[in-house]
Structure formats: structure tokens, C-alpha cells
Amino acid sequence: DSPGKEGTGGRKRNLTLLRNKLYMGQRRSTEPVVESTTTAGDHGNLRRSQSDRTEYSQKLQEKMAPQMVSFTPATSQEDKEEEASRRMMARRVKIITELMQTEKDYISDLDLCIKEVIQPLRNKQIARFDVDGLFSNIELVHQLSAKLLSLLEEATTDVEPPMQIIGEVFLQIKGPLEDTYKIYCYHHDDAHTMLESYEKDEELKQHLRDCVQSLK
């Protein structure tokens, strides 16, 4: 080989070594400084331990969150249904109480009519005054109303509101109610016409006025 070629090969080798030294120097300057193997390992373990706990806590919250969201509305819906049920039951109790009080008031009015009007007119035995035609079967209506009230009291006294079967009472007395009020309604128009004619007679009108006055 010629000396020129040897000089060229030597320069190439020198350039290669120089590049390697420069590369290693740049690598050392950019690498992070580590205090010690023991200290870095301890800090790394500590950071991983804290990170693991944080990640576990987040995953646990994510798993629990859907259950809490679904549980809360269910409880709220159950409370709403219970509150609605309580309101309906309170309203039902109120309606039954008002129904029974209305029936008591009606029976009281019928009592007054029979004792203060019908009986006195019958006792007077006025020839031109048809007491039964004027008042129809009102005494039978009174008896049936008293029976209805008795059945209502039996169905509600010492019975819890949910167990009060009021519909059964009306089904039980349905037939007698229809028969009694059919007669009363059938004679209603005739009784009204009869009353108008009696009011045109001063003597009969006075008898009626005396009975009405006694009610006051």
C-alpha cells in the first residue's frame, strides 16, 4: 500500500474515535444525576405506594358511585309512594267519616219529621188530610237509614282503616234501598201536588204551619 493510503486510513480512524468521545460526553451531560442507589429506590417505592393508594381509592369510588346513584332515587321513589299511600288512606278515612256523619244528620231530620209533624197530624185525625199520602213511606226510609248507619258503624268500629270494607255494606243493603226508594220516588210528585192543595186551604195550612213551627 502507498503512504497516502495509510495516512487516509489513519485519519478515518481518528475521526471515528473523536465522534465516539463526543457522543459519550454529550450522553453524560444529559443524563440525570442520581444521589445514590439506595435513596432513589426508597423514594421510588414511596411514590409508587402513594400512587397505588390514590389509584385504588379512585377506582373504589368509581365502582361505588353508580350504586349510590341508583340507590338514592330508589329510596326517594319508595318514600314518595309511601307518602302517596298515606295521603290516599287519610282521604279515604275522611270520606267515610263524612259519609257516616251525613247519614246521622239525615236520620236526625227524619226523627224530627216523624215525631213533630207526622205523628201530631195523625193524632189530630183530620178527615181531609191524608198523612200517609203526603209523607209516603218516609218511616220505612227512616228504618232503612238507621240500618245502613248501623252497618257502617259495624264495619268501621275497632277496624283498621285498610281493613274497612265499606263497599260490602252497600252491596248488602242494595236490594232494600232500591225497593224502599222506588216507592218514595214514585209517590213524590203526587205528594207535592197534594201539599200545594193543602196550602190553599187555610185550616189545613194552619195545621202544617203549627207543625213546622214546632220544629224551630
UniProtKB/TrEMBL annotation:
Kindly state one GO CC term assigned in the UniProt record: cytoplasm
Instruction: Outline the segment boundaries, as ranges, of region: Disordered.
Output: 1-85
What PROSITE patterns would the database entry show?
A: DH_2
Return the Basic and acidic residues bias intervals: 49-62
Q: Which domain of life is it from?
A: Eukaryota
Pfam families in the record: RhoGEF
Which GO molecular function entries does the Swiss-Prot or TrEMBL record give? guanyl-nucleotide exchange factor activity
Show the SUPFAM superfamilies listed in the entry. Answer: DBL homology domain (DH-domain)
Q: Where is the DH domain?
A: 91-216
Protein known as: ARH38 factor
Q: Which organism is it from?
A: Rhipidura dahli
